[in-house]
Amino acid sequence: MFQKVLIANRGEISCRISKTLRDLGIASVAIYSEADEGAKHAKAADEAFLVGPAHVTESYLNIDRIIEVAIESGCDAVHPGYGLLSENSEFVQRVKSAGMTFIGPSEEVMKLMGDKAAARAFAIEAGVPVVPGTDGEIEGEDAAVAFAEEFGYPLLVKAAAGGGGIGMKLARKEKQLRKAVQECVRRGESSFGSGRIYLERYVENPRHIEIQVFGDSHGNVIHLFERECSVQRRHQKVIEESPSMMMTRFEGLRERMCDAAVKLAKAANYTNAGTVEFIVSPDGDFYFIEMNTRLQVEHPVTEAITGLDLVEWQLRVAAGEKLPKSQDEVQTCGHAIEARIYAEAPFKMFMPQPGRITDYKEPSGESVRVDSGVQGEWDVTPFYDPLVAKLLTHGEDRTQAIERMKAALGDYVIGGLVNNIEMHKLVLDADAFRNGEVHTSWLEEWIKDVPQG
């Protein structure tokens, strides 16, 4: 096992990784920017080093400086967390070239799954269902329009190198399609350095359901069941839960989706933690959309229903050990719900609301978990994602998990900062959510009709 691990991240996920390292007796090294000096995640680690100014490109994406810190502090491994450099294949190569272990999959599979068009083609070859669309990438507006004339609308234009809901546009007619192609090419070039795009049939009112997978270097790949992530804004998740109510409506759906996820991971010789994401139609048909080659934001949901520590699993697998459990040994218990607490204004198009926290008190109680990266008298800056915390509750069933979440939200105090706690309370009481009838566009449609007050 490792002696010292650098955490190449910030905020709540850095705190989360530090906890498991501490539990395993492994020394931890945090990094921080000038804007994060004195941050909770820096205090949570055994050591912490400044890596640059506030802007992310000069600090948390500064590969040279991060590698330098890892070497100088004597680390033998690097954990990337999620976001930032977690799916950057160059960073993986640099870590390995410096003689350290990268806690995640190989750079080869990261490159493959990071290219959405290539991942789609790979899924087809592996026998995993994908949304009907172009066979590969498509060039230019005219080619897109020609495809649409034969294939039909609505279509989703996607940046081949995109991710996190960025570089996706819906088109229901030619004028919208031409504009969508232009925007996705431009966004792909600015955000990912590539203007390549492809087209898919737009599935109306889909559910977003993902399967947690884990592989080791001994050829073992298993799944850790599903997470439902259909409550979203701007294609980004806000509430996640497990198990999904969809699984009780269509016989054998869970088994088919989990089998498909494992099949894909095995075909890619996947190691460490990964998530295979699908959309599911109202009729129960499911389609692969992407694979995230890292630990997910919402991994605590899986930890709650399985009783496992996924960060510990990551460390053990990266150290060359076999998966701690076989597929048959992984069991689930109860229901878990996670609400992402953001510094944003839900009733103003979910706009980020950076500001200063003047009073802060986290909820506690039976089956309540809070993963946060903030503290009292702390600034949520405009430089980074406005995630304040992840609030999770677990219950014997969905009803109990929801009631515990409502109580925990009622006890959460975040003074001085605009946030989405009240929105979460309203969502939990909404008939569509209670009845398990939400889809990926539901939140943005529903909130328009919610009285503000």
Observed structural traits:
453 residues, alpha+beta, Rossmann fold, Dna Ligase, domain 1, D-amino Acid Aminotransferase, Chain A, domain 1, 3 domains, 8-stranded antiparallel β-sheet, 5-stranded parallel β-sheet, CPAse_ATP-bd, metal ion binding, Biotin_carboxylation_dom
The biggest sheet amounts to:
8 strands, antiparallel
* Total number of strands: 22
State the domain count.
3
Mean pLDDT: 96
Sum up the overall morphology in one term.
globular
Give the SSE map.
Elements lengths: L3 E4 L3 H13 L3 E7 L6 H5 L2 E6 L10 H10 L4 E3 L9 H9 L3 E2 L4 H8 L1 H11 L13 H12 L3 E9 L2 E6 L2 H19 L4 E5 L5 E9 L5 E13 L2 E7 L3 H4 L3 H15 L4 E9 L5 E7 L6 H8 L3 H9 L16 E8 L1 E2 L5 E2 L2 E3 L1 E3 L6 E5 L5 E3 L6 E9 L2 H14 L1 E3 L5 H9 L1 H4 L7 H5 L7
Parallel strand pairs: 1-2, 1-4, 2-3, 4-5
Antiparallel strand pairs: 6-7, 6-8, 9-10, 9-12, 10-11, 11-14, 12-13, 14-21, 15-16, 17-20, 18-22, 19-21
Helix pairs in contact: 4-5, 7-8, 13-14
Explain what you see:
This protein has 453 residues and is an alpha+beta fold. Helices cover 34% and strands 28% of the residues. It has three domains: 4-103, Rossmann fold; 132-201, ATP-grasp fold, A domain (Dna Ligase, domain 1, 2-Layer Sandwich), CATH 3.30.1490.20; 207-449, ATP-grasp fold, B domain (D-amino Acid Aminotransferase, Chain A, domain 1, 2-Layer Sandwich). The protein has an eight-stranded antiparallel beta sheet with strand order 13-12-9-10-11-14-21-19. A hairpin with a 5-residue loop joins strand 9 (207-215) and strand 10 (221-233). Helix 4 runs antiparallel to helix 5 (107-114). The termini are far apart. The model has no long low-confidence stretch (mean pLDDT 96). GO terms for molecular function: ATP binding; ligase activity; metal ion binding. Keywords: ATP-binding, Biotin, Ligase, Nucleotide-binding.
